[in-house]
Amino acid sequence: MLTAFRNLGYAVGSHMSLKGIVLTGVEKDGYTVIPYASQNLHIDRDLWIAAVQKDGNALRYASDQVRADKKVVNATIAQTSGALRYALGGLNQDPEFLKAIGLWDIDGDRVYKRPEMAALSIKFSFAEESTTYATEFVQKLKRDLFLGTSRPTTRMPSPKSLATQPSTTWSTNARGP
Q: 82 partner at 20 to 30 Å CA-CA among 28, 58, 72, 166?
């Protein structure tokens, strides 16, 4: 394996452990070198943290055990927030992670400056097959100087509540790619 990695242009020395050699490859080329490592390294937390720090979407190719590892998922969303959809074991719905990527208000009692609500008619999904469009849309909505002052909601108010509330609701029917 040492010769193979040297032939690929990695700076590896004979003093390095197998994990160190693979880590060198991950730092240079990302997760694509992990399948060439021994089976026990396929689930190595340190290798996968290095891989997702280079490309958060690499989590998609990790084993189920790695995709359910809270430390790996934390490193993943620090790099690519939309890659939360690849997390398993309920981590893709974990309030801590949803807050970290800006989809869940950190302060649930936040008072918005504007009475209007931005109603989102797109469904949120953290299923692996979903796109990141809805996630990115809400993140941009919250950062917008004007729209960010209104509470986003995925529920349209009932006709009865509309009759009793003077506020305006903005709606989008946008679809992702």
A: 28
Q: Where are the alpha helices (DSSP H) in 8-69?
A: 18-29, 45-54, 64-67
For residue 48, what are the domain limits?
2-100
Residue 58 · residue 75 · CB < 8 Å = no
The tens digit of pLDDT for each residue in 34-62 reads 888 888 888 999 999 999 999 999 999 99
Tally of CB atoms within 10 A around 90: 8
**Which residues are CB-contacts of 176 (< 8 A; sequence separation ≥ 6)?**
122, 131, 132, 133, 134
What is the tally of structural domains in the chain? Answer: 2
Please state which of the ranges 24-28, 40-44, 96-100, 108-112 shows the lowest mean pLDDT. 108-112
55: left (phi over 0), alpha (psi -120 to 50) or beta: beta
The verdict on residue 72 lying in a domain is: yes
Q: What's the token pair of residue 114?
A: 């504007």
The CB density around residue 63, as the number of other CB atoms within 10 Å, is 13
- At CA 83, angle to CA 21 and CA 172, rounded to 5? 160
